[in-house]
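In response to a reviewer's request, we include the raw inputs and outputs for one of the modeled complexes. The two entities were modeled together in a single run.
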Amino acid sequence: MIKYIRKRLLITLPVLLGVTIINFIIMLLAPGNAIDLMTNPHVNAATLALKTQALGLNQPAYVRYFHWIINMFHGDLGTSMTTFQPVSEMLGERIGPTLLLMGLALLFGLLIAIPLGILSAVKQGSKLDFVTVTGSFVGISIPNFFLGLGLISIFSLNLGWLPTSGMETLGAGGDLADRINHLILPVIVLSANVAGRNIRYVRSSMLEILGKDYLRTERAKGMKEWKIICTHGLRNALIPIITVLGFEIPMLFSGAVVTEKIFSWPGLGQLTMNSILSRDYPTIMALNLFMAIVVIGSNLLTDILYAVIDPRIKFK
Amino acid sequence: MPEDIDCSNEQVEKNETDVSMYRYVAHRFFCHKLAVTGLAFVILIILCALLAPLIATQSPFVVSDNANLVPYWKHILGTDSVGRDVFSRLIYGARVSLTVGVLTVLISVGIGTVLGLLSGYFGGKTDMIIMRLTDMFMSFPDIMLILVIVSIVGPGLRNIIIVLGLLQWPGVTRIVRSNVLVIKQEDYIKSCTVLGLSTSRTLFIHILPNTIAPILVYATTGIASAIITEASLSFLGMGVQPPTPSWGNMLTDAQSLTVLTTQPWLWVPAGTLIFLSVLAINAIGDGLRNALDARQQ
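The model returned the following structure tokens for the whole complex.
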């Protein structure tokens, strides 16, 4: 086990390094730097040159890369070019709302996908199976922004049941019911995707298990069908679902960018869009790197978790 | 579409050895109801894109004084905020979506296939480097990296196609690689080595054709995801720029609450078309997967 984890970590390190290099190269290509921002008629060239030196911008790219990495380990992700706030501070404010949104979407998405996927596998070829599979196609095919706009138009504007945007009603709100009301629509949008992607995954995983010999043996022993499925089928079918968590994180981040924009949700996705539109590169790069690291971390975690639960994996 | 399809006797046909591979695959594909419906819809969209000047009676670009018109016989979906005919823009928008979908996939599948072949066939250091590169690119949430690069190189149809094409290859690489790893062990590939065939001949003439099935399935779903990504980018204002009509940028206006409630004809048709096209293409992909992969049955 420890050998497997060590091997897995050894693969992760170069990937992590590569991700920071890709990020740094993009940053070099991005137009504009901190000096351009200070340039105005009142500042003379000598001051600018001094400032350039102080910030280390006159040094070769690889030196700047190491400075950037060292600063990052000290928690210094740079300064926003629009708000002049430290980027780490901005990130810190935004992580909570995004994690809340993503966590709930993942939870509800899987709560829909797992039972439906199992049911449609058990009743393969039935009407229920057809409806479920078609439904999962709808889930993966509907654009986030279209579903979001549609839901706002129906439930917020026409029926007036739910708020259109934000995390809480300004001034008046803040209590639990108000926050839940604000969460409903964005969570529906994101969990529709999660459910759509995973129904077929659960279904095919279950179908594979249902064809296994040991289930046939149980049937031959005269065990009841539902008991076979619940005790032996389900447990084995759900193991591969763990890896899904690793796939879902990058997808959810992508989904959050569009969804948070539509619902003005004050999270990382909205911060991403705002900084892209205002070309605030220090913030963009920090966000990009942060998300990549979270993705790498969650992949590592799910792989290790998978190996712990399924002992067969170690021998590969 | 063959008329004499009887989906019930699938087993019988499979056992007849004189039925060609292509007929067998086509037969299985046409038994997939959802996929056939999807194919019909995609053909309709392709026809709309090709015959756009004939179907759209008015220019999708010309700005007129007749802004924000309610639908009537002359403008069946009304006009947008600068007086352009929405129906015409919708028809021309099909061209953008299909172009982005197909060209993006050609680029990414091209790169991904070559890297996958090299990685799987040579193994060792080559494999290690290519796989770690794949891991790196897959670590970034895709829309994130796309948005960042587009913000540097600038939006627009051509840039979107290039950026999407250059970023979507890792999935193909992984699929091709895992298939090559299996095929490499087959006797006919070993005999290629014994016969002294060149590496490139073995790779492209003998291994590649045997990995076509998974590539085809992946390419189909790749078109769908490219269309949805382009639409999202255009919606966010980072994709295809007006006046070029794209289904995505037609929904940008719907971010204003008045358009959202009072002028549904401006955004509902465009959104529905994106949704239905992506759904149709995904269904075709599933049909192909079923038809090409006998293990699933």
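As requested, we also summarize the result in words. The radius of gyration of chain B is 23 Å. Chain B touches chain A through 46 residues (CB under 8 Å).
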